[in-house]
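Human:
I keep going back and forth on a fold encoding question. Comparing notes only helps if you start from a blank page. Show me how you would write down a chain together with its backbone fold. Write it directly below this note and I will take it from there.

Assistant:
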Amino acid sequence: MNTVFLLVVLVATAGWITSTVTLRVQSLQNKADRMERRLALVLDHFGIEEPEPAGMDEVRAHLRADRHISAIKEYRRITGAGLAEAKLAVDRLAEAETA
């Protein structure tokens, strides 16, 4: 009986801790997103463009060779971006290169 009760308490505590940490991480992500939007507005206001990361020539070389996935992998390696962000950036770069 004591073992079952202890197990229930442990599971409930783990669930509470997990939900608390998840909420805190979400709150911090929301704050970071707001800061990025604000920074983008400031940079746009002053006409400042973010410099291109070093190594983008390699990404362009992959695109010219029609190796889109390799270009995304290289972009992620260079910038540390997530998959979705890297794909969007490489897609935009590919559009700019063909235009």
Remarks:
- Residues 6 and 12 are 10 Å apart (CA to CA).
- The longest helix spans residues 2-46.
- The chain is about 85% helix and 0% strand.
- The chain has a mean pLDDT of 91.
